Amino acid sequence: MKTLITNVEIIDATGRRPGKVLIDDDGKIKKVYKEKGQVKAAHDREIDGQGKVLMPGFIDMHCHLRDPGLTYKEDMETGMKAALKGGFTTLVAMANTKPVMDNAEALKANMDKAEALGLCDLVQVCALTKDFSDADLVDFESTREYTNVYSNDGHNVDNEETMKKGLAASTEYNFILATHCEPETETVERDIALLRETPGHLHVCHISKKDTLEAIKAAKAEGLDITCEVTPHHLYASAMEYKVHPPFRSYPDRRALIEGARDGSIDICGTDHAPHSDEDKLKGAPGINNFETAFAMYYTVFEGAGISVERLSQMLSEAPAERMGIKAGLVKERYAGDLVLVDLDAEERVDPRTFISKSHNTPFGRELLKGKVLMTFKGGEIAYDNGSLV
Fold it and tell me: Where's the Amidohydrolase-related domain (predicted)?
């Protein structure tokens, strides 16, 4: 179905402009028109954006879908539907499932399941080591066919030799090695030192400290291939006791992260969506439900700090797409027709009871946030419509 979206302000990493967008039968953007441009191309459906903002679909480089094995917390379908409500059209799901995603058969099964659901695009992360072991690396030859991201997220890679071999493999097989670092700054500094010796494609997950950011900025200045991400909760709040990994940090750390978002030293906005049952959360499981609140949390922080929506779009869409080699993340001809219609003026209080996700673990219930996802398009089709999945 050819879909024409009219009467919108288009915002992506390249700027903002009023216009219209035509999405072709193949789910790709066929034409981006100026506001007064005449649309002569045939189309089956016209959607009036009512003057709201149209952005490229968000790409989450860090989430947990809990599928297989932990589906009482979340499953692929509920997670993806919650993601679409939040404007996310591509998900990079971590490997700490049960069993761990550490072989080609498991990766293929999850990719096939995602394709059958037809909701979000899935990049299923493969573990770096078998069953998150200390030194037993996975088979890169077979697993690389199904993914280009490897990570032991949730577990530090303590063995330096394992980390060096992982970096070397990321170059040889051309994949991204995403790291969960604890203790954070010390481990990042160690990994940067290893990256100098053994070139690789390193991505540092959910940074939370000023000193960590300073180390990454210095590594980038050296020309090392390193990127990093921040989460909505670490930008939005500080010094909270609510249990997350890494923990909420100090106010100076949070301010440093906001400046890192502003100046470009932090590359990507992830969610680290980590759903848990109420029982598991009471037992101390670390993690926060973020899919359905991430955009509003980010926008509330960015607007308050005077950081542009264009920069937010870059961090939510263009930068993760570029890092993973996906032709998406911009409102541009021949790019994916994955788009999000948002109301930047809307204010809404967080109500976990309305979450589509199976879990409701958030400390931000009743917080007043600004910015609301009205509609999410996946491949030109309406996947979420202002509270109603279609």
Answer: 53-382
Question: Looking at the domain assignment, is residue 329 inside a domain?
Answer: no
Residue 194 and residue 261 in one domain:
yes
pTM above 0.85, yes or no: yes
The reply to whether 330 falls in a domain is no
Domain membership flag for residue 192: yes
Peptide bond into 246 cis (omega under 30): yes
Q: Which residues are within 8 A (CB) of 300 and not within 5 positions of it... i.e. 6 or more apart?
A: 236, 369, 370, 371
What percentage of the chain reaches a pLDDT higher than 90? 96
Separation of alpha carbons 118 and 116, rounded Å: 5
Does 389 score more than 50 pLDDT?
no
CATH number at residue 102: 3.20.20.140
One domain for residues 319 and 343: no
Clarify whether 272 is annotated catalytic.
Answer: yes
Q: Give residue 390's pLDDT.
A: 45
Residue with tokens 């919108």: 8
Residues β-bridged to residue 10: 17, 54
Catalytic pick from 24, 121, 191, 272? 272
* Domain hosting residue 100, numbered range: 56-324
Kindly provide the b/e burial profile for residues 46-59, where b requires at least 16 CB atoms within 10 angstroms of the residue's own CB. ebebeebbbbbbbb
Mean pLDDT (the chain) is: 97
Express each pLDDT in 13-57 by its tens digit: 999 999 999 999 999 999 999 988 788 888 999 999 999 999 999
Tally of domains in the chain: 2
